[in-house]
Amino acid sequence: MSTAQINSHNAIHPSPRMELVLVTPEIAAQWLARNTRNRRLNSRAVQRIVTEMQSDLFRGATGSTIIIDRDNQLQDGQHRLSAIVRSGFAYKMWVLFDADPEDFKVIDVGGAGPRRDSQILQMQGVKDANVLRAAAHSALRMRQLPNVNWGAGNAIASALVRRFVVDHADALAVCGTVGYRVERATRISRAQFAAVAFVVSQSSVNGGEMWDEFVTDVRDGVLLDETSPAYALRRWAINYNAPANSMQKQQTTVSVIAKAWNAYVQERPIKVLAYKYGIELPMPLPVPSPR
To answer: Is 259 found in the same domain as 134?
Structure first.
């Protein structure tokens, strides 16, 4: 494009400008009314943002902008704006006005994608972030959602999980190490065993000597009677199959571990362990270590 053509183009089209705007629910609704070309709204993604807002974890004025082109069409930001409308909160946000309408074709295309939770936690200095995040998510669900079947619709907001990991990083790391040793010996999910270990550790006022004994029995399986809860848990791990990262497997695994541990505490013999996902509610939760 020649200099004359550039000058002519600029005379016709205003230059993009960035402004810090207090986006109220009313303003967000007005901009969403101009949302004619975006992908379909993901209601679950909106609810996750709403939860972050309600928990005072959402940050508005970051480098992630709301984009409105010079045709007054919303190019980017529909989920954040929808969350503002749904929550009733107002946030200062950077807004790019008068963007080129052609830019819409390449927004969110060809990049590395949004940062995953594990990447954000690693940037905050958390080691073994994937396992700790998964363990924290299950521990939170055990506390908050014992009466429902776990599914994508009731996932804990990512920001809440990340904050939980940071707040309990040391304790979760210890539980993750325990889970790693058990997983190597039994194939029980490291993250789910760590979740149960964390719940037990947080509810026990002493050092959890009996829990340590239970972990050793599950891990080593030495001289265990066939009616031992630890033996039953090892046998369950061999026979149970489900998609590795499914919500069903996560809830089933922590429930079965809790059942085995509770029977161990009660010195109650048990031969078969199972959890009826979709039927058996409220889910069993691990009791504190008695010593």
So the answer is: yes
**What dihedral do alpha carbons 68, 74, 80, 82 form, nearest 10°?**
140
Kindly indicate the confidence band of residue 2, based on its pLDDT and cuts at 50, 70 and 90.
Answer: very low
What span, in angstroms and rounded, lies between the C-alpha atoms of 83 and 144? 23
In a domain, 285, yes or no: no
Closest by alpha carbon to 86, among 62, 50, 52, 57? Answer: 50
* Whole-number Cα distances in Å, 12 to 15, 47, 66, 68, 230: 10, 41, 23, 18, 76
The DSSP result for 225-265, as a single string, is -TT-HHHHHHHHHHH----TT-HHHHHHHHHHHHHHHHHHH
Statement to judge: residues 169 and 62 lie in one domain = no
The set of residues, in sequence order, having a beta carbon less than 8 Å from that of 218 and lying 6+ positions away, is 182, 185, 186, 188, 230, 233, 234, 260
* Segment (H or E) for 26: helix 25-32
Question: Could you tell me whether strands 91-99 and 66-69 are parallel, antiparallel, or unpaired per DSSP bridges?
Answer: parallel
In the chain, the number of structural domains is: 2
DSSP label at residue 156? P
Query: Do 81 and 138 belong together in one domain?
Result: no
Which pLDDT belongs to residue 134?
94
Number of helices (H), then strands (E), belonging to the chain: the values are 12, 4
| Helical residues (DSSP H) of 33-156, grouped into ranges | 43-54, 78-87, 117-123, 129-144
- Indicate whether 155 pLDDT > 60: yes
Q: Let me know whether 229 and 185 are in one domain.
A: yes
For 272, the 3-state DSSP assignment is coil
Q: Which domain holds residue 88?
A: 11-98
Q: What is the pTM of this model?
A: 0.71
For the record, the structure tokens of 252 come out as 């089933």
